[in-house]
């Protein structure tokens, strides 16, 4: 991991711009104005945001908007990506971030490998992040994640250590 100082707003704007260019149907709206200095792996976090955004668009074929929000909360950045799409049943919440997992029926109509959220969760783990979901079927989903401003600070060893996964459990909270 290449942990570097970066501007979180710029990171978000870049990812949004990239995904916006792939969609003629949805407008991605960004709420939040703060300039936040942050330490993280730019390319990998960009990939995380792009994964959430492309899912939000893919799984809301009848909607025309995706809303991204970010804010600073007690030394953490909290980001949400909200769509108004097919939603996710509660029973599927716990497996969404598993490798190759795709929700039966609903997801089968859409192309995909079931890797985006798995990869995203690995990257967030490496940044000491956590994430959670709020969703209602046929109404839409919101994916949240929280990142400490400097994941490399208190955790230098872990970040560069392959044993990282053994002792740091990922927290997933279901609302
Ligand atoms: P890939 O991202 O590898 O192209 P994918 O989108 O199917 O394929 P993930 O991004 O890991 O894989 O998502 C896993 C599953 O979670 C999806 O197949 C879908 O069932 C569900 N899912 C993810 N995001 C949403 C969303 N915004 N709304 C509804 N379901 C979602
Ligand atoms: Mg995906």
UniProtKB/TrEMBL annotation:
Residues 1-151 form the Histidine kinase domain. It comes from the Bacteria. This is histidine kinase. It comes from Pedobacter quisquiliarum. The chain holds residues 562 to 736 of 850 of the full protein.
């Amino acid at each position: 991991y290449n942990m570097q100082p970066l501007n979180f707003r710029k990171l978000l704007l870049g990812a949004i711009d990239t995904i916006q260019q792939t969609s003629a149907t949805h407008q991605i709206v960004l709420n939040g104005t703060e300039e936040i200095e942050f330490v993280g792996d730019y390319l990998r976090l960009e990939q995380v945001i792009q994964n959430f955004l492309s899912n939000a668009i893919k799984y809301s074929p009848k909607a025309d908007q995706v809303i991204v929000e970010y804010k600073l909360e007690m030394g953490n950045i909290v980001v949400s990506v909200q769509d108004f799409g097919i939603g996710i049943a509660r029973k599927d919440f716990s497996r969404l971030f598993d490798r190759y997992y795709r929700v039966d029926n609903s997801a089968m109509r859409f192309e995909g490998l079931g890797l985006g959220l798995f990869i995203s969760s690995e990257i967030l783990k490496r940044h000491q992040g956590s994430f959670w979901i709020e969703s209602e079927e046929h109404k839409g989903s919101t994916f949240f994640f929280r990142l400490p401003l400097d994941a490399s600070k208190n955790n230098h060893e872990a970040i560069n250590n392959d044993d990282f996964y053994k002792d740091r459990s990922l927290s997933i909270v279901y609302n």
